[in-house]
Amino acid sequence: MYRFLDKHSSALLVFRLSNRWFTFRMDVMAMLVTLAVTIICVFTKGMVSTALAGLALSTVNGVCVFIPFLMRMKSEFQSRITSVERIIEYAYGLSSEAPREIPETRPAGPWPKNGSIDLREVQLRYRPDLPLVLHGITASINAGEKIGIVGRTGAGKSSLISTLLRICELDSGSVLIDGVDISTLGLHTLRSSISVIPQDPVLFQGSLRYNLDPFDVHSDDAVWQALEQSHLKVVVQRQEHGLMSKVEAAGENFSVGERQLICLTRALLRNSKILLLDEATASVDVETDHLIQATIREAFKNSTVLTIAHRLNTVTNYDRIMVLDAGRVKEFDTPTVLMSTERSLFREMMSATGVTSVEQMLALT
């Protein structure tokens, strides 16, 4: 909260200071004009009557007061009308998302039951006037598989994950989960069926329990069990108020590692058949990384897991590795096969970390 207030105050200070600077400049100009008219009246006193000189000075003084006021009002109007333009743009200019619910296409019973994913010629661009970021990606992911997604910066890893949540609609192609085309589903139906652990953990101001179970659908026993699985139970027990401990805005009273483990606990409670990790361990220490990976291997052994890996050693024990480059799938096979293949992109990336053989790679797991 205080961070947002500071940002608002900083912007307001700049706005006020620029207004004062503008007013000062206009006042200086008015003073110079009045001075010029006064000098003219003095040097033409034989040709200009006293009454005419007084009228000239009075008129100039009135104009010099009115024009700065008018210009100040004009500048303030321009700055204020920007807010109106933004409101109009947000109200009428932005395209809305797909419907939240579509009862006609909602799968009967729990969905997905297995967690298989089929990508068929997936192409994605963020705006109609921008180039494609994903180019015809086709891949089949079996139910329960653990898939590591690797690639250099800008390869399209996060874009691929976003297609599963329909954050951006596809330019062409389709994504099927358990044989159901996700473009036919309501967004709530789709997104509530998938768990996500992002790189930057999201926590809300309130109680710890609210952050773990915001819709209050789980018992305290289930919450404590999930905390034990994520190795956070001892940390929470040390808190004076336990599950009702206060969480500050953005979780600032917890370390980065603890915030990430809280997000992991939230995913454990949901127990979805599909889990997405978008570089979830990129900002945490190695110990927390190991805790998260161990929990995922145990708790989500029957779920399909897609992990965008920052540390390659976190996915060397996965079933398959998908290597992306410039929005295309360059390699998709087991870590052992990719590491054994000459000129493999995955092998090059592992070699850059000092791992040059299959034996060294397996020793990391």
UniProtKB/TrEMBL annotation:
GO terms for molecular function: ATP binding; ATP hydrolysis activity; ATPase-coupled transmembrane transporter activity. GO terms for cellular component: endomembrane system; membrane. CDD domains: ABCC_MRP_domain2. It holds the Pfam family ABC_tran. Keywords: ATP-binding, Membrane, Nucleotide-binding, Repeat, Transmembrane, Transmembrane helix, Transport. It is a multi-pass membrane protein. The chain crosses the membrane at residues 21-45, 51-71. It is found in: Endomembrane system. Residues 119-351 form the ABC transporter domain. Belongs to the ABC transporter superfamily. ABCC family. Conjugate transporter (TC 3.A.1.208) subfamily. This is ABC transporter domain-containing protein. It comes from Scylla olivacea.
